[in-house]
Known about the structure:
The chain has helices at 2-17, 20-42, 51-61, 70-88, 92-107, 111-140, 148-205. It is mainly α. The chain starts with a helix and ends with a helix.
Amino acid sequence: MQMLFDAIGRFIDLMNTGGLVMWVLFVLNLLLWYALGYRHFILQRGTQGNIRRLIDKHEKRGETQAIRGILDHAVADALQAAKDAKKISANMRQHIHGALFPYYIDTSKYVTLTKTIVVLAPLVGLLGTVIGMIETFDALQNSSMFSQGASISGGISKALFTTELGLVVAVPGLIFGRVLDKKAERFQLEFEQMTDIICTKDSDEN
């Protein structure tokens, strides 16, 4: 327990070296990884294989088909929407799009937040560095000639902590965010393909 308290104390001391900006970056980092974690959890494919095969499995097995990921849920809802559209003689494509709309929203959720933090974090870090440099040079006015060298090196070192943390927040967020964006785009294309296949199969049957 004492080791935990010591680690927390060292962490707080490190954060305080960069001032308030360090804590702002820490909060931005928490928000970023919450958004990335949420998107990673949502963007789980589930059953592997192409969309046509997945649709066939759900049509054959029905309720016994295991629901493993977003595509399984989407196929099940799309097929149910197609059945409902046939019962009420509604436009099947529009009905399926309506059923899949929440999935489009889920796959793109927190995209704006992630991109905003990735852009904002280095700027906030740079702001902290500028503030730190200003405070350093202000302190030099009240320092003796012999202590100015140590004041400059120590002050600049502390000021650069914020820039470093800003990049530490932004770079992984940029990489993982881009990977998840590509994954989301692929899912959205598969949703479109899903709609086309179900509507085409219904037309062929009729």
